[in-house]
Amino acid sequence: MSWLRIFLIGLAISLASPSVAVQPDEILDDPALESRARDISAGLRCLVCRNESIDESNAELARDMRLLVRERLVEGDSDAEVLAFIVERYGEYVLLRPTTEGANMLLWIAAPVLFVIALLSAGLYLRRRANAPEPGKDRLSPEEEARLRELLKE
Fold it and tell me: Where are the alpha helices (DSSP H) in the chain?
């Protein structure tokens, strides 16, 4: 029973802690700007942690990126301008949701096309396998059987 209590207390403490890494000194005074900053940074990848947003990452680079987003918003940039600035500076890899334009279109289309090709290939393979003659149905001719008996006697 005591282990259950310890587990529940630990679970409650871990759930009570904030899930974002934004430091109090980063938060903007204007709630509207802070909300926009959170929305933008939730869609940006931490380049150190790979699959975490910069909002969730404790890495120094993520902190620098969060500060950069807030700085651009304070200067009056729109959300699209902030994203364009970040992408220009760090590359398109920084986006957690890649765009569907340009060369990325090939990546978006390739997966479904390759899946259909794999399904067709599997279907053709199974059809050929079903139509293939069963092994063992081709019997030896009487001459071949006689020759085989001679070889086995030796």
Answer: 2-16, 31-42, 60-74, 79-90, 104-131, 142-153
CA distance 96 to 113: 23
- pLDDT, tens digit, for every residue of 17-63? 444 566 666 677 788 888 888 899 889 998 888 788 888 888 888 88
Kindly compute the dihedral angle of the four CA atoms of residues 47, 51, 55, 58, in this order, to the nearest 10 degrees.
Answer: -70
DSSP three-state, residue 53? strand
CA-closest candidate to residue 34, choices 55, 59, 56, 15: 55
- Identity at 17, one-letter amino acid code: S
Residue 72 C-alpha from the chain's centroid:
29
Contact 89, 81 (CB under 8 A): no
Token reading at 38? 């959170």
Q: How far apart are CA 18 and CA 36, in angstroms?
A: 19
The alpha carbons of the chain give a radius of gyration, in whole angstroms, of 32
Its pTM stands at: 0.58
